[in-house]
Amino acid sequence: MGTRRTLPILKQLLKKSISSPSDPPPQLGLGYETRRSVTYMPRPGDGSPRPVTLIPGDGIGPLVTGAVEQVMEAMHAPVYFETYEVHGDMTKVPQEVVDSIRKNKVCLKGGLATPVGGGVSSLNVQLRKELDLYASLVNCFNLQGLPTRHENVDIVVIRENTEGEYSGLEHEVVPGVVESLKVITKFCSERIAKYAFEYSYLNNRKKVTAVHKANIMKLADGLFLESCREVATKYPGIKYNEIIVDNCCMQLVSKPEQFDVMVTPNLYGNLVANTAAGIAGGTGVMPGGNVGADYAIFEQGASAGNVGHDKLVLENKANPVALLLSSSMMLRHLQFPSFADRLETAVKRVIAEGKYRTKDLGGTSTTQEVVDAILAVLD
């Protein structure tokens, strides 16, 4: 009898809990609250503050890393920074900086200027090789309230980070003739493919697209494709396809919503990530990071313009959004999901409201005005 009496009550409760078709859908930052259905259960001691190596970098770097420091302090996030001065015109990354990253295992970095031409190698590449940060990840997606040419863009570009054209194996054969070697190995191709499929599996992504030029570079890019195909067979629930890099660029600017996760060799990934970032709203709002088996460095996702222009620095109008969203990725990496959600929600709400935006997003706000708006939402 008890069960029979309970059923009508349950039906009434269920009927009330289901929204009618006329109810407006919940939208971010418009007064609707999102709640977790299952709590995050930390291990004892997980709440102790974690040290993070901080490299402000060049150009707008100190401005945007300063914005992150302000927001982290306001949230009382359980991290603290060990700051080191590194600049792109140095011949190498100081050993104390590398040692700090090895100790802390996590680094937040502003842009480092890379000299064009000359004999000074990129410190960004040096760090990736030194720490074996073999996977670069850039998440390019539409932000609510930010108008773009295309909608429903949510692309993750996963790029091999340690070899390819970035191997640095160049020499002058005879005066006026330079030979540059592109190195592709089975080992590195397999592990970046595994990372791409594992990322897709853990993040409920449905498709992985391998970007290549195997129609011309039949051995090098052919080896990369062969590795991707082998790994794909181990993930039957994830759709796999391939696309030639030139066609990929055309498809990106015409129909970007067809892409989900893209896995690429080193050079192609840099081009594809920056193209996708431009389509989805600009490099100033795209988060990213570099990760290996032991260490991770979080920075602005797309490399184009990551040090900005002198005028941006003088006027204090650098866009801090990309690095703030990268910091949210960092907090998730450190297993602080509620802080990550809180920061990401605040940033997206300020963008959606549209009152405070820097010049690259069509506004006139300074870096500090954007930060103050985010702090006000956090409060």
In short:
With 379 residues, the protein is α/β, with parallel strands linked by helices. It is 40% helix and 17% strand. It is built from 12 helices and 12 strands.
Task: Characterize the structure shown.
The protein is α/β, with parallel strands linked by helices and 379 residues long. 40% of the residues lie in helices and 17% in strands. A ten-stranded mixed β-sheet has the order 2-1-3-12-11-4-5-10-8-9, with helices on both faces. A hairpin with a 2-residue loop joins strand 6 and strand 7 (177-180). It is globular.
Tell me the layout of helices and strands.
Layout: H1 2-17, E1 50-55, H2 61-75, E2 79-83, H3 95-104, E3 106-109, H4 123-130, E4 135-141, E5 154-160, E6 170-174, E7 177-180, H5 186-202, E8 207-212, H6 220-232, E9 239-244, H7 245-254, E10 261-264, H8 266-280, E11 287-291, E12 296-300, H9 310-315, H10 321-333, H11 337-353, H12 367-378
Parallel strand pairs: 1-2, 1-3, 3-12, 5-10, 8-9, 8-10
Antiparallel strand pairs: 4-5, 4-11, 6-7, 11-12
Helix pairs in contact: 2-10, 2-12, 5-6, 7-8, 10-11, 11-12
Largest sheet descriptor: 10 strands, mixed
Helix content: 40-55%
Number of extended strands: 12
| Sheet with the most strands: spatial strand order | 2-1-3-12-11-4-5-10-8-9
The backbone outline, from C-alpha atoms, is globular
Percentage of residues in DSSP E strands: 15-25%
Rg on CA atoms, Å: 23 Å
The mean pLDDT is 88
Low-confidence stretches: 1-33
SS field, number of helical segments: 12
Q: Give the SSE order as H and E letters.
A: HEHEHEHEEEEHEHEHEHEEHHHH
Termini gap: 51 Å
* Derived structural class: alpha/beta
